[in-house]
Amino acid sequence: MIVSSVATNPDFLGTIALVWCILWWFLVYDSPVQHPRISESEKKYILEAIGDKVNQSATEAKVVPPFRKILTSFPFLAMVILHYGSNWGLYFVMTAAPKFVSSALGFNLTSTGTLSSLPYLARMIFSLIFGAVGDRIVKQNIVSTTFMRKFFCLFSHVVPGLLLIGLGYTGCAPILSVALITFSMGSNGAATLTNLVNHQDLAPNFAGTLYGIANGIGNTAGFVTPLVTAHFTKNGNGFAEWRPVFITGASLYIASAGYFILFGTAETQSWNYVTPVEEEEDKRQNSNSTDTTVTISPKT
């Protein structure tokens, strides 16, 4: 209980966040070329791995993301939808699962606090396992990156969705219900191979922008999920009321995966390669400063 109260204390969490920000500020750089503390061999390894997908000039010169092309790109929209489906599951466990465990399963608040941490622990462990598997697949070039992204959607989205459907039919079996919630989140750990990295595939030069847009939209699930849960459970907290909540979450999981499988890709998009603004301005200035020679014929 003491450890739990300290870990959830706002001052403790704020201090951890502040320490992380300070470390990030002094340790992270925009480019391996700019980093003062890595060896030449490390720089060479990173730059060779990046290849021509990231413009090194883009780390020093101002580059405006091609927002029109980004927002009209089917692969990008597929990634956003996939990310939204994943976030829905995360916010369900964060907001609705504790209520379900305490009200529908009859667990006391102390037990609920302990059990609510299991899905996150499972997700962390499974994400490490899936990440290791993905690295091995990429290293051995077994399948294409696009195939791997789509295949692991089965684990990050489809399996969690099916487990949520099963959760609505477990009846008064608290151990089974908690196990399904835990493994649903654990399987979603495969998101480290799908929606959490696809922005790096599509446009390494604008990966931060892409993920910012996707995560901004995905985080709207944080206030939509409680509204949906409240709507279906306003007349009670039995399994009959909770079943539509699970089916809704499962539908979003599976539908978002289906859309990504149809329209998603891991191929780097053409709009990833852009010319820095300074270079564009120089070109315009050069084109406007051409000398014109005027010949005047002598008067006879």
TrEMBL record:
One of its GO terms (biological process) is monoatomic anion transport. SUPFAM superfamilies: MFS general substrate transporter. Residues 286-300 have a biased composition (Polar residues). It comes from the Eukaryota. GO terms for molecular function: symporter activity. It is a multi-pass membrane protein. Gene3D superfamilies: MFS general substrate transporter like domains (1.20.1250.20). Keywords: Membrane, Symport, Transmembrane, Transmembrane helix, Transport. It is found in: Membrane. The chain crosses the membrane at residues 12-29, 76-97, 117-138, 150-169, 175-197, 209-232, 244-263. Residues 278-300 are annotated as: Disordered. This is Sodium-dependent phosphate transporter. It comes from Spodoptera exigua.
